[in-house]
Each structure stands twice: as C-alpha cells, then as structure tokens.
Amino acid sequence: MVQDADLAPDIAKHHRRLNADEYGSMYVVGDVHGCISELRALWTRLELSESDLVVFVGDLIRKGPASAAVVEFVKERERAMSVRGNMEQNLLRGDRPTELSTSILDVLESFPLIISWNDTMVVHGGVFPNKPLSAHTPTDFVELRSLSPENGYDGLFWFEQYSGPPRVVFGHTVCRKPVVNEWTVGVDTGCVHGGELTAYNVTEDDFVSVPAARSYERRSGDKILDPQSL
After folding, report:
1. Residue 96 pLDDT class (50, 70, 90 cuts)
2. Helix crossing, 36-46 with 67-75: angle to 10°?
3. What is the total count of domains within the chain?
4. In degrees rounded to 5, what are phi and psi of residue 114?
5. C-alpha span between 190 and 6 (Å, rounded)
6. Which of 3, 6, 134, 214 has its CA 20 to 30 A from that of 99?
7. What residues form DSSP beta bridges with 120?
8. Pairing of strands 120-122, 167-170
9. For residue range 109-167, what is the model confidence (pLDDT) as tens digits?
10. N-terminal to C-terminal alpha carbon distance within the chain
C-alpha cells in the first residue's frame, strides 16, 4: 500500500489514494494520444456499471487527431481519472507550444502523478527497481522506460527487474501486446501507431482491447516492444 509518507513531499501532494471498496471493477487504460474514436469504442466495449472506475495512464494528448476531445471525454465522466504522462508534464512545464484551451490545461494540471489503491499503483512511466519511492522524482514516474542511460528501447527495461510491492500498472513503453509480470502490467499497446487501445481490468485480471482505426503516427519497429522477446 502506497502512503504519502512513502513519497517525497513534492510527489506526495500529487498522489491520489483511492478506497477500492467504493468501486466495482477497476480498469486502467493505456496511452490514448488523442484517439477519440478508439476511446469511445473501448468505452462501449467495457459495458461499465455505475460503480466501476476507469483510470488512465496519461498521455491523453498529442500525436493523434483529437487531444481536446479526449480530455473532455475523461473530464465529463465521474468515474474516470488520469495520471499525468510525459506529454501532459512537458506541456504544463511550457516545453512545447499548444493550441489547447486554458480550460483543458486546467484539467491536465489537476492530474496527479500517482493513483493508488490496495497494492496497486498507476504511473505513466515506471519505478526504479532498487530505489525507494521516496527517492523518485516526478521525471522518474513520468518518463522512466529502461535502466540504460539513454532510457530507450535497447536497454534493460525497468519492469524486467522490478519485484514490488506495490504492483505497478504503467504506459509510456509502446508494446505489441500488454506486458504482464508478477509485479508489473504495461498497457500502452500503441493505438496511435496503428496498434490497439487496451484496458486492464485489475479486478478480474484480464484485458479488453479495440483496434486502431488507422495509424496516426508512424513508428519504427525497433521502438515497439514485443513482450514475448523479454
């Protein structure tokens, strides 16, 4: 169980702790990247009850065709919430220009870095295997992918070494299929690159996916991980 005391003070104020008893099934959805039609299709497939909760791993925006529409979709649903991804974090730091409205930026600003319940923690990037949570920075939680200095796709991935607890559900690392290990679940299945948009049902420990309507951004094959190769 992740408590605020486990985190650095500047992280703790961006941690949202949930009581799982208040919800039915709890889902975590991978990187949407502005793919609104796929998000609507996935939402329909989930057949949610009024008590179910959907948590997004961040990167709702950029690359795809409808960033604002995706943010509005999440904002308008009482049982939906998101952590920040690197796309949101970079935008809020002013690193990139944006055409998004002030109201949309305010929604992104409200996203925490971490959402947790029971023994589950949702972040966008990852967790260093041999570093206490209290020593992690916002950049670690948002951008971590591999343990190599380049933090790319050719190094040892953090989730190959991480042994929990807590169990971490994450996005950011684009995969052909979900990554499933004892202590980690990766749900970025590359929708914006022509893959799938995936939801992980944490309660039932299974997946629901919908195919992308098309590829909105090309990506080289060496930057799409095949979990079977690990």
Report:
1. low
2. 30
3. 1
4. -135, 135
5. 32
6. 214
7. 117, 167
8. parallel
9. 999 999 999 999 999 999 999 999 999 999 999 999 999 999 999 889 999 999 999 99
10. 28
For 167, the token pair is: 């169990």
Per the prediction, the chain carries an average pLDDT of: 96
Q: Identify the CATH number of the domain in which residue 169 sits.
A: 3.60.21.10
Q: What residue type is assigned to position 195 of the chain?
A: G
Q: Which residue has the tokens 């995936």?
A: 198
Amino acid of residue 7 = L
Among the listed residues 74, 57, 56, 62, the one whose alpha carbon sits nearest the alpha carbon of residue 99: 62
Tokens 């009581």 sit on residue: 19
φ, ψ dihedrals at 54, nearest 5°: -120, 120
Spatial separation of the C-alpha atoms in residues 142 and 166, rounded to whole Å: 17
3-state SS of the chain is CCCHHHCCHHHHCCEEECCHHHCCCEEEECCCCCCHHHHHHHHHHHCCCCCCEEEECCCCCCCCCCHHHHHHHHHCCCCEEECCCHHHHHHHCCCCCCCCCHHHHHHHHHCCCEEEECCEEECCCCCCCCCCHHHCCHHHHHHCCECCCCCCCCCCEHHHHCCCCCEEEECCCCECCCEECCCEEECCCEHHHCCEEEEEECCCCEEEEEECCCCCCCCCHHHCECHHHC
Task: State how far the Cα of 40 lies from the Cα of 21, in Å rounded to an integer.
Answer: 27
Tokens linked to 193? 């690159």
